[in-house]
Amino acid sequence: MTFSLNLFADLQQIFYYPFMQHAYEAGTVVAIVAGIVGYFVVLRRSSFAAHSLSHIGFAGAAGAALFGISPVYGLLLFTTVGGSSMAILSPKATYRDISIGTVLAFMLGLGVLFISLYTGYATAAYSILFGEILGISSSDVLLTLIAGLTILAAVALVYRPLLFASLDEDVAEAKGLPTFLLGIVFMLLVAVATSIAVQVVGVLMIFSLMVTPAAIAQQLAKRPRRVIIISVAVALMTTWSGLFVAFYEPYPVSFFITSIVFVLYLLARLSNRIMKDKTVYRTISER
Amino acid sequence: MISTIGSGITVAENRSTSPQPIVTAEDLAVGYRGNTVWRDASFAINRGEFVAIIGPNGAGKTTLFRLLLGILQPAKGSLKIFNAPPTRGNPRIGYVPQRHIIDAETNIESLELVRLGFSGRKWGLGLFSQNDRKFALAALTGVGAPDLAHRPLSELSGGELQRVFLAEALVSNPEILLLDEPLSNLDIRRESELLRVVNEVVRSRNVTALLIAHHINPLLPYLDRVVYIANGKVATGKPAEVLTDESLTALYGIRIEVLHDSRGNLAIVGLEDTQGEHEQ
Fold first, then answer.
1. What would the pLDDT profile of B122-132 be if each residue is shown by its tens digit?
2. DSSP state, B153?
3. At what angle do helices A253-286 and A179-201 cross, to 10 degrees?
4. What are the DSSP calls for B235-266, one per residue?
5. Which residue among A169, A175, A219 places its CB closest to the CB of B101?
6. Which residues in chain A have their CB less than 8 angstroms from residue B128's CB?
7. Interface pTM (ipTM) of the complex?
8. What residue in A sits closest to B70 (Cα-Cα)?
């Protein structure tokens, strides 16, 4: 396949292949969901939770492989159970790291057991670790879509209380918000989002969609809704262009996605720095 | 109330002739897991009063707030707020806690936090309600900080943050304000600026303010009442009644002397030595 300068012709060529269609469909859902949930992950300083849930998902996927079912079911089961246990074991978001680490170690132990019992090929494990979006089946696309829509509906419902509890937990609690329940809801959102994002970027590179786009957006805007819109846009751009490049190059999609998003992050930091310097300069010269 | 009389006069008359108790405690005791923090507390706080809660670390000042917020239940006695036992999530209470998880990474403009004080309890996205922005801006203006509206929280100084938190608490028009150590981390100038703002809120809106502090002196010009918590006991009254040799000696159980300087400042001698023993 050759790359031309005609974008329309290129896209036509790409979408000729069902596996590319599926990749774009699942990738789009994942990017939107990860961009939104990722904002709350960054806001609540819960990147360790996202990281741990993806690793716990790996254990679940290994278990699914052992029982001969699609890895995404194992991912969903393990991350939701792991995520809610983390939230229940430590009700305050601020001190959650220790219970997260404890649950993570236990569930990874199960993963090791499953892998040692599994006699199949190592490629299944490889694709969970590094992502294999080009091999996604149409039934997995459907499951991804359902999971994605569920997350969007849940976020739409709890948006303001979750934002409040994430920013000012003590005041939100005093105002009568169910902060403990919101903590569980948040962990479940991260669990499901992580499970479907693993298909695109794998367990090891989950941050590239769950944390970096939101971190970029936070550099560029100060109002939550705008940050979320930018975060989704960055995740979409990254995923789409990663798939595009990977179609023509023999290297893994996840490598392109992580590289693109990292470059965008550096650019955002740089532009933020320049803007800040300008503001300081202006304030000083006005005095 | 007579309708021909202006509302301002009526309020003023109400305040002077018949004070309305907004918080009443009778024989109140509180504890965690069987350990009593303090007990035998009986007091009343009236509408529109500026009240300081003073006492050493760990004496149970924040515990009193937790009782009023309905997060903690009394171990003994009765506590009433607005003539009923406290319940969680009472919108008539505005609360500024001691800790906030705002750090250098919190790149959110102040207005958005204040806005959540109004609409953060509501479910759904609220895409079409823009009233909360208007209320939030009005609340920031009310604490003399409209210029902070679009500044990110991460860049604000301690004094600026306290004003934003105050606006967040005031945006839902509470009748009582609970401020947990708003003066810590403020220098003397910012301290008195913030106290002036709180006093202005108390006087102009007839809001009751309970403010936890370590030092009484900066508060003395404004206070209607002091709640002194130490040594497992609670003493309340007008500053002149509570801050005397006799009442503090009774409270601490050792001899205390209250010294006055020429500008009305107080020094409480003997307090420092006993402070360690009463920490819990």
1. 998 887 777 88
2. G
3. 120
4. EEE-HHHHSSHHHHHHHHSS--EEEE-TTS-E
5. A169
6. none
7. 0.88
8. A174
